[in-house]
């Protein structure tokens, strides 16, 4: 180390006479070298440019490996996504405060949304109740024919199939509507909770 430091002092002493700039780099054994050019085999491993006093004025980082480059890209993508989420949250917060003045207003809007969904739900449930007796009667007639070992007419088969499909479709729509209504309740509950937090932040800032 003392020899390399002495070499640096000699190079610095003769720096005005050296054409170009002075660089330092580290080889495979971890030894530091100095010169006015960086050998090609070390060009991608990082180096430092020195001034006449031996202070680093510019540092070039080592070239990234494919794995390091991929990790860096993933890190930058994650940072970008987090920044995007922050901006979106800021936008939602602003809209929340501009739309409502009290938590009660949030409840009223929620109830209006749920009321419309409830009417649709009741309509579908009523339709299912109307179709079910028709299906039961058709199945009963089919059962009588089967017991007598008589074939079912095409019209009866079609009536049963159509009623079964309609009831299945209605049940799926009813389930979907209930999920939507649960989602509405959860969304407005989150909005109310966030509204309360934002109001508390505003009140604290005023104190």
Question: Gist?
Answer:
The chain has four helices and four strands. The protein has helices at residues 2-13, 66-99, 103-147, 154-206; strands at 22-26, 32-35, 47-50, 56-60. Strand 1 and strand 2 (32-35) form a beta hairpin.
**What structural category arises from helix and sheet content?**
alpha+beta
**Mean model confidence by pLDDT:** 87
Rounded Rg: 39 Å
Number of domains: 2
Give the strand line-up of the largest sheet. Answer: 2-1-3-4
Helix percentage range: 55-70%
Describe what this molecule looks like in 3D.
This protein is of the alpha+beta class and 207 residues long. The protein has two domains: 59 residues, no CATH class; 106 residues. 4% of the residues are buried.
Quickly list its features.
207 residues; alpha+beta; 2 domains; four-stranded antiparallel β-sheet; 4 helices; 70% helix
């Amino acid at each position: 180390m003392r020899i390399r430091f002495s070499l640096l002092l000699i190079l610095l002493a003769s720096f005005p006479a050296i054409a170009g700039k002075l660089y330092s780099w580290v080889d495979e054994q971890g030894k530091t070298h100095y010169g006015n050019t960086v050998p090609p085999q070390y060009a991608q491993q990082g180096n430092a440019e020195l001034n006449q006093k031996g202070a680093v004025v510019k540092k070039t980082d080592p070239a990234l490996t494919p794995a390091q480059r991929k990790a860096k890209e993933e890190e930058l993508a994650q940072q970008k996504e987090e920044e995007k989420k922050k901006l979106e949250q800021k936008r939602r917060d602003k809209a929340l405060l501009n739309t409502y003045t009290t938590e009660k207003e949030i409840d009223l809007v929620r109830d209006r949304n749920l009321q419309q969904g409830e009417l649709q739900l009741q309509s579908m449930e009523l339709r299912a109740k109307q179709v079910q007796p028709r299906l039961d009667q058709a199945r009963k007639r089919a059962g009588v024919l089967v017991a007598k070992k008589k074939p079912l007419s095409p019209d009866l088969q079609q009536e049963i199939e159509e009623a079964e499909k309609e009831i299945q479709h209605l049940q799926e729509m009813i389930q979907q509507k209930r999920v939507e209504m649960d989602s509405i309740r959860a969304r407005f509950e989150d909005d109310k909770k966030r509204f309360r937090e934002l109001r508390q932040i505003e009140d604290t800032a005023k104190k």
